[in-house]
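Hi there, hope your week has been kind to you so far. No rush at all, and the record is pasted right below.
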Amino acid sequence: MSMAFSLTPLQQRDKKIKDLEIKLQNERNARRNDREEFEYRCAQCKEKSENNKSIIRMLQRSIISRTKAIGKMRMIISGLKKRIAELEDKAAVLEGRIKKDSTNSGKPPSSDGFKKPRTFSTRKKSGRKPGGQFGHKGYTLKVETEEKKIIERKEGVCSCGGEIKFGNKYESRSIVDIRVTLFVVEERAYRGRCTVCGNHFKAAFSSGYMAPVQYGSNIKALVVMCNEYGNVPDKKTADIISSICGNKIRMSTGTVANIRTVLANKLASTVQIIKQRLIESGVLNVDETGVRVNGKLNWVNIFANERYTLFEHNQKRSAHCNDEDGILAFYTGILVHDHFRAYYKNKAATHAECNQHILRYLKAVIEIQDHAWAKKMTEFLLSAKALKYELMAAGQNSLKPEELAELKQKYIDILDEGDKEYQAATFGKKNIRRFREEYCLLMRLRKYQDEHLRFLSDFNAPFGNHIAEHGAHFMKNKTRVSGGFRSVRGADEHMAIASVISTGKKQDKNIYLMIKDCFNGKTLFDSG
């Protein structure tokens, strides 16, 4: 049986071939499945790759967009930082302005408003109580007058009902008063005829009688006292004069203006005398203040010393420095001013700067910047001023050369310390506008060292320019009431009258009698 089922070699070959074909087909099928799976996976990978590339491109675009946004934000932040620094500097400047008043800057007292600043006084406390001191001799009002009315009081009844017999002893009390009496002095110029030739003749009036009726020098002087010295407006001045005369006269505002004009014309020679005395003086204080004339800003220039004051009106602040016929064109003494640089055009004068202004500026540096050099400079100037007065009281008229050199060196050392403080405060800062005024003050004190220390090198030079500043206050009293002048002529008239009144006050003259003498044609201040 085994032989019956045995395969022939040919059959075995065919079977083997068939088996191999089956294996080959299976292998092909397997390879096809692998290729399909590979292609599928490649397709998936390709799809994923495309997706990844899309994601990468999206991320790249996002990164670029965010980078640009970050760049813009950095620019905005940089701009904001710069703006913040500018605003901080501006806020510091404005805060400094708020802290400034008439005691620590060049601002006038009228700008202080209702909240008056604390007074910056250079005087030291004496320890004494205010008012009259113990043992001080009192004074009673004394009046010199030719007219005196006496009323004798000799009536009364004793508490017991008895009659009082008065003796010669008495106690007196007085009331001092004035009486305004309106009187008229009439001058009559008669007509006549010459007994020889028969010509008609009329007697001449005195110089004061120019119109049928005019006001006398007493009323005119009183008008000027109210209007110019008391700074009473024209209308109120006319009302006051009419009222005190019992309304027997009706003065108009035009009359007040005419009286002012007449007086200003009569004072021309007196003003020239004041001008000449100032030119000849050894020390001249000068200042200027603004005033409105016909609605425009003009300037009043003040020239003053211990005995004389002159006011001049100009449209420009420095016009008096260029006037070839003005005081400054001829002045050769010590010229004291507040660092208005136009004054340095005068090369013949010896210049001196006002240190009272410097004390105010130093006070601002102390209060706003809190820098130590400003306090040291304040103490130096005040101690130097006190030293000068002590030496003058002792009869000395100058410092020894080595003492003056030592003071100058101390002055420079303080400025060097100030430069270091300024540099430390501004180091690394772009916005330093808040320190600008301190820088200018340091430069001014160094550049004009000789002018600021003139009061030490020459004892004739004062420490400050207060004499001229008092003149500015005198002028401001007028403008506070009137606000200004309506014409150039009115301003010039006030300058002339104010010059004479201010000078008369310095020389202890009776202002009313002085003005009355001016109306009567007298020239004042004719003696040195």
In short: The radius of gyration is 49 Å. The chain has a mean pLDDT of 86.
